[in-house]
Model the fold of this input.
Amino acid sequence: MTIPNKNYANLKDSYLFYNISQKVKAYSAAHPDKRLYRLGIGDVSLPLPEVVIKALHEAVDEQANKDTFHGYMPECGAPFLRKTIATHYATHGVSINEDEVFVSSGASDELGDILDLFDKSNTALIMEPAYPAYVDANIMAGRIIIHLPSGIENGFLPEPPQNAKADIIYICSPNNPTGAVFDRKKLQKWVDFANENGSVIIFDAAYEAFIEDVVIPRSIFEIKGAKTCAIEICSLSKTAGFTGTRLGYTVIPKTLVRQNMNFNDMWVRNRTTKTNGVSYIIQKGAAAVFTPEGQKQIRDNISIYKNNAKMIMDALDKAGVWYTGGKNSPYVWMKVPDRFDSWGFFDYLLNETGIIGTPGAGFGGCGEGFFRFSAFGTPEDTKEAAKIMKELLIDLEVAHK
Done:
């Protein structure tokens, strides 16, 4: 008889986005004429940059011509795109070889697949609040998880634990959901910790393009010693609007070795065994992102999202509410008023104003009492929602006094 993976029975039911959709559906049915302000979802609202659309069209036309047609692509990524990405890293002062770059169908896929490189006996350290997939992927693998809490006291940027060791360490910076970012000094502590303990850091850099402070590293490989302890996973979803187009890339240095096994070699074998590569059309579009014009166009789009974040931050500042994120991140993470838990605040905000955010409790126990706003909505919705929210929060504070 077939034996299923019984680790799936250990997964907690994930009600976060289902509950949100059901609550919003009920509200809309009861108030069909009310406007909704969607500041909860982490999806983008702006279309792909023009330079990408042009490249995609060119690639489609090439596929219609026998002389320029492309069939299967190299499993680890087209050489032209791997080289382009390596060159892009060099513009930020990071030297990597093109054969250390692996093209993927997106960071979410890669975050799950990369666990193939680790024995299930390895422990995984996950800072919380956390992107739920980190936890669930390791539960599915039957792996022991060390939950490292964070909070206001450390700005949701915990330091390495003194009394625990872990084989796999997850770091997301800028962070989802909190928007907090590690500076060089704090990130160096984690790199040193990993090297001292023989750990491997999985560095989720999906939001690196939102970093504007030069003192904040956009890549973990800007940190001394990272090439012997880290894997970096990146995405074009938020950077260039590829949420529906799907492309990411992973960097595994050839110097990352544990027990005489080279992780770069292992990943080559994994990809050549388990994938047939990403489509030529999508890779051609992705390469356009890294051209001078592509970089200009994505900066233009990102500036719109960052202005959305600023409008949210300004509203919270004027209301005297604690928050983190926003400046170097598309997410703003606020402390909810004392009279609410995070789901209670969600209900109140939706029913009183039509504003939709994400309750922090959905990101683990450390998220209770907090709330995430996304800057990926339209500027019009964000501006109006920020104004309404400021007034509501000020009224709540006055009423509380």
Remarks:
- The mean pLDDT is 95.
- The longest strand covers residues 230-235.
- The chain has twelve helices and 15 strands.
